[in-house]
Write a structure and sequence with these properties.
Lipoxygenase-1; 222 residues; single chain; TerD; mainly beta; six-stranded antiparallel sheet
């Protein structure tokens, strides 16, 4: 049974998975956002008058969707580090190392189920930190107007939600949440820390340095 989501906000940014009884099994991390083209088409359909509708339809045709990529940087208790993301086809695995997996690459935001990561909490003792992040792989613009939401759902239906709001102009990446052990409990902490082009090229490198994850990066494609 799916429960009412616990929304992580600036005022209440953390939640203990242990206190909610989420200590084992799989936890799914879902990223969903509004397709820019779909929103423009809906606006065109709601336009009144033939000329306004034609103009709105032409504008909708010119709108380009953005390709958002969900990822997870992982640091293990034994010092190993890796990343799970579509770039470089690093989709991971839930059954063996790194015990985190990405199910698909949603290129437009039109996929009903969005993008999903699964984290195998049966191996939580091996995790030191898991940093959830998202960035624009392809497409112009930024996160404004995308209404991006990340939801973590346990096997039994517990839900924890992070809204990617207050996006600054030109923001092309976001550190969403940091999962780590704190006072003996596994805690999810809302980050919603935005990165823009001025922060430098190689956004994964910029994010990993910001969180002192000590990861080394090489160029990749998908």
């Amino acid at each position: 049974m799916v429960s009412t989501p616990v929304v992580l906000t600036k005022a209440s940014p953390t939640v203990s998975l242990d206190k909610h009884g989420v200590t084992s099994g799989l936890i799914r991390v879902n990223l969903n956002w509004t397709s820019a083209q779909a929103a423009a088409r809906q606006k065109a359909g709601e336009a009144r008058g033939i000329l306004r509708r034609m103009r709105a339809s032409l504008q909708a045709a010119a709108v380009k969707d953005v390709d958002l990529d969900l990822g997870c940087m992982i640091r293990f208790s034994d010092g190993r580090k890796t990343v799970v993301q579509a770039l470089g086809n690093s989709f991971g695995s839930a059954d063996h190392f790194p015990y985190v997996a990405l199910d698909a690459d949603d290129r437009t935001g039109a996929r009903a189920t969005g993008e999903n990561l699964v984290i195998n909490l049966d191996h939580q003792a091996e995790f030191s930190k898991l940093l959830l992040f998202v960035y624009i792989y392809e497409g112009s613009g930024d996160f404004r107007g995308l209404d991006a939401v990340v939801t973590l759902t346990s096997d039994r239906g517990d839900q924890f939600e992070v809204r990617l709001d207050e996006c600054p102009p030109q923001a092309h990446a976001c550190a969403i949440a940091l999962i780590k052990r704190q006072k003996g409990e596994l805690v999810v902490g809302r980050e919603v820390r935005w990165f823009t082009p001025k922060d430098g090229p190689g956004i994964q490198d910029v994010i990993s340095r910001a969180y002192r994850l000590g990861m080394k990066w090489t160029p990749g494609r998908k």
